[in-house]
Amino acid sequence: MIEQDLPLQNLNTLRLVSSARLFSRFSDAAQLLSLQQRAEDEQLPLRVLGGGSNVLMPECVDALVVQNESARIREVSRDDMNCLVDVDAGMNWHEWVKKSIEYGHGLENLALIPGTVGASPIQNIGAYGVEAGEFIESVSGYQLSTRQLRTLSASECRFGYRDSVFKRELHQDFVILRVRFRLARQFSPVLSYSPLDALNRSTLTPENLISTVCEVRSSKLPDPKVTPNAGSYFKNPLVTKEWASSLKETFPAIPQYSHSDGIKLAAGWMIEQCGFKGKKVGPVAMYEKQALVLTAENNATLADVQALQKQVQTQVFDKFGVWLEPEPQVFG
For the chain, which ranges sit under pLDDT 70? Predict the structure, then answer.
């Protein structure tokens, strides 16, 4: 069923006021092809919406917005080292993480991240020293421009820090239908980030690790069902070692973390140093417990969010010489 002028306020976790010209859900490739044809008949772009946790909704989305509701999990194969598992794009990410330990390990640190499995490769979601791309074997989907089903290997996905080919060459041209994960049979937790580094590795279980991650995230991040938000709003910027050393000389307390692409800085710390923690501007604010999180009140708009975003970016740049990039992107 295709609906007209459907409100999207309850389909994005910031609950920004928005509506879609046309909206429909699908559960397989055949339905998706039919929806693509309808979009072309209406001379509208086709846009895919996942869990709405990493998007900024404009007041009017002039498109046919579609949402995948398929959420199957299928074991492909296993050996002594790994287990391959196919997961449909419509599966809730946190539910998949909890279920994943029945097949293997590696995703435990990514518990309680909002959104769907289909969105995880796009953003290459990460937390506490782990990125989803490390455990993705391949991504299967439908390319709109060629009308072909394709499977991309992990290398073809070109995963980077909060980045992938799906945000670049295949942006708005590839509908992810399924993600294949390679999970390790042996539990070998990554405990390099605080406060996980205080856990006892010898007695830790996968269930305990997931529970701890959930407790930590809940203590720092607001529940989007209670307080509208999109999780961490800004990326932690990556800089060269030389730049990081220079910043350390000027700001000795600045947190820094080693990364394969350079040194990662703590955006939340820099935002807090600029006085934005808990600061409210109209119906939006930087969260009082974690300055990296932007929260909104009901009836906030994209313009409200972007106004606060620009203030934060400008003041952080003036103080630290670093321009922060938002994680959520404008939808449409």
Answer: none
